[in-house]
Amino acid sequence: MADGNSSASDTLWHGRFDGGPAASLMAFTVSLPFDRRLWEVDIRGSKAHVRGLGGAGILSHDEVDTVLSALDEVASEFTAGTFEFRDGDEDIHTAVERRVTELAGDAGAKMHTARSRNDQVATDLRLWTKDAVLAVVDDLIGLQDVLVATARAHDGVYLPGYTHLQRAQPVLLAHHLLAHGWSFARDIDRLLDAHERMDVSPLGAGALAGTSLPISPSATARELGFGATFDNSLDAVSDRDFVAESLFDLAMVGIHLARIGEEWVLWSSEEFGFVRIDDAYATGSSMLPQKKNADIAELARGKSGRLIGNLTGLLTTLKGLPLAYNRDLQEDKEPLFDSVDQIRLAIAAVSGMIATATFQPEAMAQAADAEVTAATDLAEHLVRGGLPFRQAHAVVGRLVRRHLAGEGALVDLAVAEIGPECAELVRPGAGVQMRTSPGGAGPTPLPAQMAAFDERVAAARSRCAGRR
Length: 468
Ligand code: ARG
Prior knowledge:
Layout: H1 23-29, H2 32-35, H3 39-55, H4 61-80, H5 92-104, H6 106-109, H7 117-153, E1 158-163, E2 166-172, H8 173-197, E3 200-201, H9 217-223, E4 228-229, H10 233-238, H11 241-267, E5 275-276, H12 295-318, H13 333-356, E6 358-359, H14 361-368, H15 375-384, H16 389-404, H17 410-417, H18 422-426, H19 430-433, H20 446-466
Parallel strand pairs: 3-4
Antiparallel strand pairs: 1-2, 5-6
The structure holds arginine.
């Protein structure tokens, strides 16, 4: 099929080429449609690089000033939405350099001295990812605040805790909500750990091997606020561990949100009736007028699939790549941008859904107070009397079997066989009170957990602030 060609002088690399690139090449290889969002970090990186070239005496003070003003001008064009892309703009780096050269002439044409797009794009993406990771941490801390506030607002409310999705033992709603809070605490730690590891500047690695010009990679690293500078130029331009690691951390957040999502689909169903989702956070049916659907919860569950896909896609791209830069690496951006965007939308929606929901304490208590959920407490009562637990388990198991066979209420059978004190153990609301051990689900250990959680959130907040 015939291909239109653009003009040879449109590209950064036209000198070596006879004629312009084929339209199909451009269509297939351009990254501008997705990497244009790097404009801000690209300009930040270029400013540091140009100052570095000035410091090394490669550009004169005047040239540095001219290029820096041109970069500022380009930044205001982006902010104002007036920046005009051209057909030959392969990516955001090309577009910015092209425009700087239009504005600054020969000084602009010196901007890319001692730099390759390979170290440039790695620098840009690290800067972008550092910001994105901290933004996600902020979002997660906001979600933790919602979980804690909801927990505090429902003092004493309890529901069945489940194993195998069968009612097991009653737990405080606060304890259940905090269980999710702790998983987000680990996500936050992971993201901040990743943030520390990605805080290394690749700028100055050049295309792959450094340069003959007297640049100072550590000076530009400092200028850009990086905590460290690369030690090996080949590694600097090839390393996308930080993207893979971020994608894993975001997928893990997605998996945690998916677990909340699944629970809320169940809890908000008529069958459970544990929670009513606010109208603003639910959707209707186009055909069934009575429907109110928990779409946020379902998408919180469903989006985890693509977050995992973004991670496995990138790992597959990275596998087997020879050193150093290969164009395959351009495939790092879309999954990263998508995972960051999706997780931030999901955290906001789930936070709103939880913050505005109305819990149904009676329905929860009724389900939690089913007599059989007291079975373990009856067995532990026998243990306190000296019976080995395995025998106590068998005694109560037989009572449950007789109860299920229709011989009578469990409480009556227990009172008859064990003693009158059993009535108190099976009384509605008694079970959750008996979850007394440290870290357990009852009101006795809850304050210590709340305090530990508050401390953990405060520590995350200050660690996050320290990374800024
Ligand atoms: N858009 C490219 C990327 O995202 C920039 C680097 C291109 N480098 C090259 N040698 N072709 O990776």
